[in-house]
Amino acid sequence: MADGKQGWTCLLVLICVCITVGTVIPVGYAFGVMNAPSAFIRSWIMESVLERYSSRLGDSQMTIIMSTVVSIFLIGGMLGAPFAPIFSARLGRRGILTLSGLLLLVSCICQLFCRMANSIEMLLLGRLIGGLAAALIYATQPMYLVELAPAELSGSVGVFTCIGLTGGIVLGQVFSFDFLLGTEKLWPYALSGSAIFVLIGLAPIFWFPESPRFLMSQGRREKARVTLMRLRRDEGRVNAEMAEFEVSSTDEGQVTMKQVLCNSKLKLPLFIVCSFHFVQQMSGISAIWFYSIEIFTQSGFTAAVAMWLNFALGLLNFISALMGPWLMRSFNRRLMMTISCLCSAIFLVLLVVGLELMSTIHEFSFTCIAFLSLYIITFNMGLGPTPYFIGSEIFETASRPSAMALGSFFNWLANFVLNMIFPTLNSATGPFVFLLCVVFCAYGFLLTYRYLPETRNRDAKDVAQLMENGFKSKIK
């Protein structure tokens, strides 16, 4: 790692904020916007099918179509993830984010005009394209920011992915409220509202620099030096980092996804990245919202107040994520990840107990609200942000795009699996379904404790050497 500490610069802050607003917030928005207007969407779908096919949908058919509208975004994510390293090698980090922005705009256009065209297929296409764009963003945005930042800020910039997702969910909820766009006439505008953030956030993207590590991998040494000088404004620091890049570019060539999968030295870091992404989703952060409204109504709140309290819980999720840059800069990755996994498991167990007793002892409903809040806070201490950027800290430049893409695929896969199995398991077991999430939190704790080396303030090349012996590696 280059000598000397370097803090935030105005340019780096601007890049982090704009890229997050233009790419990640629209992804979170797509998750948060669907709930409130779902009744209007169901009604429109029934009318459209009746008008076009002279057929009336049954309840089961309607449920399948609505499930498809929601889940096709996740399917797009799984389909798009394998293409991320291919586009990254051809277009660069900045180029693939630009492509993602264009795909997001196409997605918004499809969703905006689907009712005007009376086309359910256009709505599905828009959600699918949005998922494809989101997959490219998951794999590229944290990598781009980490490669622009000095090593000591890699964790701080990496958590902007989590901040963008949680912030986007909150914004999606706000835009879909019935006093804004969540009405029978305006719901297409609610679904496509993320276009505003794409246009604002990515407006200056061609003024932003390309990743200097990517430029070096392409043999553009002078361009990489100019970019680093613009970012660091310290010639000594630039010379030190350029020397590190020279060594990396000499040792590494372009690495395909197949080569990453077949390389025994990359087995452990790849396993960690994919497992962290899978654990993040299977830990129950998405499923937790399934119970939140019920808990609030059981506590004696009206349905309208419960909706606002649910929004407040989403706001807590976002505020907790905002603590990420400070936490990642101040504390070690291993410490934050182990605490996050352990505490998340504990609060989920307490939540199961509270939910089971809530029907007979009214006061437990208030403790469930507390357990929900504490779970969200502890989740954002490590489980929330770490999976998005850990690949940039344990993989070297050549293998990084493929590793990040594979991690992204497992994130989408886990999200899809949980969304498919959670309602069924919940019907069969009730609140005990969260014990499955506890198991995955425990797995994340054990994996971190046994195999994850400390990556804070360390160069990826040094960290990679610690894991070359696979599961026999001795972690330091």
TrEMBL record:
InterPro entries: GLUT (IPR045263), MFS_dom (IPR020846), MFS_sugar_transport-like (IPR005828), MFS_trans_sf (IPR036259), Sugar/inositol_transpt (IPR003663). It comes from the Eukaryota. GO terms for biological process: glucose homeostasis; monosaccharide transmembrane transport. It is found in: Membrane. One of its GO terms (cellular component) is membrane. Gene3D superfamilies: MFS general substrate transporter like domains. Keywords: Glycoprotein, Membrane, Sugar transport, Transmembrane, Transmembrane helix, Transport. Residues 16-456 form the Major facilitator superfamily (MFS) profile domain. The chain crosses the membrane at residues 7-31, 64-84, 96-118, 124-145, 157-175, 187-208, 268-291, 303-323, 335-358, 364-383, 403-422, 428-452. PANTHER family: FI08437P-RELATED (PTHR23503:SF127), SOLUTE CARRIER FAMILY 2 (PTHR23503). Belongs to the major facilitator superfamily. Sugar transporter (TC 2.A.1.1) family. This is FI08437p.
